[in-house]
Amino acid sequence: MTSYTLPKPYKAAKLGKKKVYLVASGDLRQSANQNCWAAQAEMEKALTKAIQDLGWQVVRAHPYKEDEKHGFIGSQKEGLCVFAGMDPSAPVIVAESVWQYSHHVYPGLLAHQGPILTCANWSGTWPGLVGMLNLNGCLTKAKKPYATIWSEDFTDDYFRGFLQQWLTTGTAKHKITHVKPLSKVKVSGAEKKLGEALAAQLRKDRAIMGIFDEGCMGMYNAIIQDELLNAIGVFKERLSQAALCYAVAQVPEAEARAVYQWLLDHGMKFKLGRDEQNELTEHQILTQCKMYISALRMADEFGCQLIGIQYQQGLKDMLPASDLVEGMLNDSVRPPVKSADGKRELYAGRPLPHFNEVDECAGLDALFINRVHTAMGQPMETSLHDVRWGDWDQSGTVKDYVWVFEISGSVPASHFSGGWAGAVGERQPAMYFKLGGSTVKGISKPGEIIWSRLYVEGDQLFMDLGRGGVVELPQAETERRWKLTTSQWPIMHAVTYGVSRDQFMAKHKANHVQVVYANSAAEADKALLARAAMAQALGIKVNVCGTKKDGKAWA
């Protein structure tokens, strides 16, 4: 009988009683990790004190790296090494005060046998809660049990009580009484009939979703399995950002200038300079205009009804940011572009829905919105935002809790007061895009919105929907919020009806939230129910969250 030399099984030392691991997932970009380390160190100090006050000891599972000047896990490879050396049965806290790439720690967490807690700061400047929500979405998709908590300073009773319960029992949950399955909500005959008809149409006629390089910034939760998409009539066309870069190089300068001039004629302003490394230049904008033309033509060539550009990795080394491109694509009022042969205007009079950061969950939701709102005569323009942060209105103008929904790209100017005349182009910060590019900065107009998130849990699609409003804040309060977040990006002051800050955080399964306007509160209620009916008819499990505008529960 043949015998082989087998490797000895590796066993990490047991951690011991009342000891908990702490890990910190970081960015893939060294500059971001270095810039954000001081905030992470301060957060860990406060969190460690809170844990010690409860009689536990923190063991940091990976060291500060002197040569790299930060203590984050900076890659999937590094994350696998870190978890390989940990006691797999010990409790672990993933502490986040920055945006992080979930795949740095996701593989290790997936195999980890002990209790898992994701924990974030509450700050606009240091968006740990954005990173944490993305990781939560990834773990939810994998059906990996975890608990999650957040805090401004890690001293409040809500945080301390939750932490103590988790440390003591290995599990802790939030109350989500604001969530109601659609089966318990009355959907009128008209909205139900419309939703079911649109679902049947999608299954029959089918739709193609254009994906420019699947998977962005570690967002495993943003990828929908083909089997789930195909079952409802949607199919992926996997496109290459290399092909997009090539297409950009083929667009004549005159065509790009025509798009740029259209923006200027419609009132958009750009803060221009001459320093390519630090300022927005006309060259960057013209390249973005070429990308806009190329994206439309590629989508048309492959028959796509919506597209998603990966953004960030790869693209950032080749082209300016896609922000301006995405904003134009998502608007029905946008520069006209003809097919390559000059015979047809592409997607005339309507958006070509674009899902930022190639978030397929947001993309599918945008497709539903486009179908429902077109049929109901409601605004078609939609966008995803980061759930960036929230705070009470310091001016006292608005009594409700006001969220800061903010994203670098994807926002259509039709969401702003004044449309394109209310949009300003500023340079994308060099930390994100060294080649620059214009954002579409603006303040979302007051009005009635539907917010939503479509997500994957195991082998099932889910959708959470709720009603909300966009409120107008004094300019000084808006500037305060911009200064605490990213001032170059578009901002939405959102109120979620019947859903508190902690309730929203407890249930939301992604760093992104989808928003769309309706012409009135009553019409928004109907559009929500029609989309919910469409999703349910396609086999998606639907939850309605919160209340209507008047505070009344969904019947």
Structure description:
There is one protein chain. By secondary structure, the chain is an alpha/beta fold. The protein folds into 2 domains: 19-169, Rossmann fold (3-Layer(aba) Sandwich); 184-545, Alpha-Beta Barrel (L-fucose Isomerase, Chain A, domain 3), CATH 3.20.14.10. The protein has 15 helices and 18 strands. The protein has helices at 30-53, 76-84, 106-111, 128-141, 157-169, 189-205, 226-231, 241-250, 253-265, 282-301, 323-329, 360-376, 475-484, 501-507, 521-537, and strands at 19-23, 57-60, 92-96, 116-121, 147-151, 179-181, 207-212, 234-239, 269-270, 306-309, 382-392, 401-406, 424-425, 447-457, 460-470, 491-496, 512-518, 541-545. The strands form 4 sheets. A 6-stranded antiparallel barrel has the order 11-12-16-15-14-17, surrounded by 4 helices. Strands 2-1-3-4-5 form a 5-stranded parallel sheet. The longest helix has 24 residues, at 30-53. The chain is globular, with a radius of gyration of 23 Å. The N and C termini lie far apart (72 Å).
Q: In brief, what are we looking at here?
A:
The protein is an alpha/beta fold. The chain contains 15 helices and 18 strands.
**Rg calc:** 23 Å
Mean pLDDT: 96
Stretches with pLDDT under 50, minimum 5 residues: none
CATH architecture heading of the largest domain: Alpha-Beta Barrel
The number of distinct β-strands equals 18
Oligomer: single chain
Indicate the CATH topology of the largest domain: L-fucose Isomerase, Chain A, domain 3
Helix content, binned percent = 25-40%
Choose one word for the global shape: globular
Q: What number of structural domains do the residues give?
A: 2
Strand order of the largest sheet: 11-12-16-15-14-17
Number of helices: 15
Portion in beta strands: 15-25%
CATH superfamily of the largest domain: L-fucose/L-arabinose isomerase, C-terminal
Structural class comes to alpha/beta
Largest sheet: 6 strands, antiparallel, barrel
Please write the CATH class name of the largest domain.
Answer: Alpha Beta
Distance between the termini: 72 Å
